[in-house]
Design a protein that fits this description.
heterodimer, A: 115 residues, seven-stranded mixed β-sheet, four-stranded antiparallel β-sheet, B: 111 residues, six-stranded mixed β-sheet, five-stranded antiparallel β-sheet, 11 strands, 0% helix
């Protein structure tokens, strides 16, 4: 149980285009989903927290207009990188948790490469 | 939010040896978790230790937590080549569900 999937697993796009990444909790309802970014050889940095049906809370320094997060259902959250640039190339990882649960369940990650 | 500092940043050992990595933090926590990440892959949850616990075991893993020193250690005994990965501590503080990750230790186990 407690499986989280991400789609796509990798994506290559041209500079200026937008890319959508999906995060799904497959066998449980996720009241909260988190989006992280990991640059090569670095740790995971939290970008934003999203609760189902409400606006996401962004961490300091993360542009909410550039990284659009939608958490429309208890099993799906999406991250859209708008007008992507090469510096947005990174490994994006989502995680999902339920209310009152100490543990987060992580997706396998999406590698974004912007040319 | 705080980030854990891990040391060493990198560790290379022979198969069969024990590996110890440490995580230090600055403010109080609810719990501390350890994760493993193979290169370019997602995270695997290893173990969670609560702030009122001092030690936990899981197979070849042993985690300690010293809240007075604000530090935790992860010990992997009898290491195997398959243990080669990056290991991260993750801190949960306050009433928030979110966690913040440490800087990570890259472990290489040489067969």
């Amino acid at each position: 149980g407690a499986v989280v999937s991400q789609h796509p697993s990798w994506v290559i796009c041209k500079s200026g285009t937008s890319v959508k990444i999906e995060c799904r909790s497959l066998d449980f309802q996720a009241t909260t989903m988190f989006w992280y970014r990991q640059f090569p050889k670095q740790s995971l940095m939290l970008m934003a927290t999203s609760n189902e049906g409400s606006k996401a809370t962004y961490e300091q320094g993360v542009e909410k207009d550039k990284f659009l997060i939608n958490h429309a259902s208890l099993t799906l959250s999406t991250l859209t990188v708008t007008s992507a640039h090469p510096e947005d190339s990174s490994f994006y990882i989502c995680s999902a948790g339920t209310s009152g649960n100490n543990e987060q369940f992580f997706g396998p990650g999406t590698r974004l490469t912007v040319l | 939010s705080q980030q854990g500092e891990e040391d060493p940043q990198a560790l290379s050992i022979q198969e069969g040896e024990n590996a110890t990595m440490n995580c230090s933090y600055k403010t109080s926590i609810n719990n501390l978790q350890w994760y493993r990440q193979n290169s370019g892959r997602g995270l695997v949850h290893l173990i969670l230790i609560r702030s009122n616990e001092r030690e936990k075991h899981s197979g070849r893993l042993r985690v300690t937590l010293d809240t007075s020193k604000k530090s935790s250690s992860l010990l992997i005994t009898a290491s195997r080549a398959a243990d080669t990965a990056s290991y991260f501590c993750a801190l949960r503080s306050g009433g928030y569900q979110k966690v913040t990750f440490g800087t990570g230790t890259k472990l290489q186990v040489i067969p």
